[in-house]
Amino acid sequence: MSxxxxxxxxxxxxxxxxxxxxxxxxxxxxxxxxVSTASASAVRHKSxxxxxxxxxxxxxxxxxxxxxKAGVDFxxxxxxxxxxxxxxxxxxxxxxxxxxxCWNDVSNEMSLWLRHYNLIPRCVRxxxxxxxxxxxxxxxxxxxxxxxxxxxxxxxxxxxxKVKPYSGLPAGIEQSLKFLSLKWQLDFRDKxxxxxxxxxxxxxxFATSTTARWCTIELPPTxxxxxxxxxxxxxxxxxxxxxxHSDSATxxxxxxxFELKDLKLSKQNCASEDEMITLHTVQPGVMVAVWKHSxxxxxxxxxxxxxxxxxxxxxxxxxxxxESVYRPPPHQPTLDDIDxxxxxxxxxxxxxxxxxxxxxxxxxxxxxYQKSFDEDGLVLESHKEQEGMFTxxxxxxxxxxxxxxxxxxxxxxxxxxxxxxxAPMWCISTAVKVAxxxxxxxxxxxxxxxxxxxxxxxxxxxxxxxxxxxxxDSQNLVKSLEIQLRKDVINKWxxxxx
Length: 498
Description:
Layout: H1 3-27, E1 51-52, H2 66-70, H3 72-75, H4 78-85, H5 90-96, H6 101-106, H7 110-117, H8 122-127, H9 130-133, H10 140-159, H11 173-179, E2 183-190, E3 195-199, E4 202-205, E5 209-214, E6 225-235, E7 250-259, E8 272-273, E9 277-283, E10 286-291, E11 301-309, H12 313-319, E12 347-354, E13 359-374, E14 377-381, E15 388-390, E16 396-399, E17 404-407, E18 410-418, E19 424-436, E20 450-457, E21 461-470, E22 475-485, H13 487-494
Antiparallel strand pairs: 1-7, 2-3, 2-6, 4-5, 5-11, 6-7, 8-9, 9-10, 10-11, 12-13, 12-18, 13-14, 14-22, 15-22, 16-17, 18-19, 19-20, 20-21, 21-22
């Protein structure tokens, strides 16, 4: 057994003993509550409508404080609570509003929010009319939150007005995501009703996608887990200059949700592995790593990574809710009865190969040409003899708080395929296998080097990239690109009947 394997076995053993002790304590307690993990990145949220606050804890078990028996409102009268609240930030007021009904009522007082009125953005202030300010029925807390979010979303839309001509995507997506003070939250629910929540440890931006990583997560074995959810958390409170509060409450939008039992994770069905982990691409864009030596006890998660393509990402973030994923309306085809080759030509694409944090190679294809069209679909290719070169071998480095390694046969593929109207038709951001080709599968009449194939396939079509490692030059040559679109997909997108 290698040094890394020995270290990993000891680490997993200590984690199992720690989990066992925690389970024994939980079994002896009659209450069932949301579980807080030992990870520094773990946080828990309890929604106030669709707005949550940072680092807010919840406990659904029986009260243990001696003050709770008498009632907080009895110990602290509303007048004193209101005076204390006047020294708090808006986000801190929202946290306190969850303590009891009395504190929630105090948090709606006009005097509290008038103190912050001149510190919020001007357009939000101007939206509150004079008769509303003096109305006794005006709910200051709710209205300031809702109107700030409304004007924030309008500001995001103004940033996204320009469209990049090559990728067909809005030009200011990265700027908008940073303006929203975006954080990604990973939630696991187990079969006992416990919830484990983590904020992303890393966040990386690329030309057409973004990647979030959770490097250290401490959870029970995978058989005890029920579901996985990934949500976006965006800032609610802003200063006058539209800079988000450092402690701002957040609005939560669900983007990914699935049951872990449907994934059928096992050591045998992994996409890749090294001496410490097995990697599983549970759905396009979502990577889950399991400690290799933990499969004897059912498997324990090591880290999680998710890649989001920018296409329609902001719509899902701004319009999604805590419980449901926003589904954009389906594409409506633009009909053309004149062109006999409508839907079969003038495609363009942007393709990138990268790791989770570093770009290896990227290329824009102004036009992809028809290679063939039959019952299997439309095959597109570039007429270039070669597509470019890059000086590193494709790989997928990973890390946790303690361990790190490299998966040499994996990479992340980003693809944006535009139709002849320059509308995004096929958008991909996911981990892919980089498979070495046998010598009898490669034509070496022109090139002599180690050949590999990057291949991705889904319900839209298939993409293949042929790579050749030139040992003398220490460079990877991108030999060819081939994209195949299914015939039924073309007919549905363009309204044709091929």
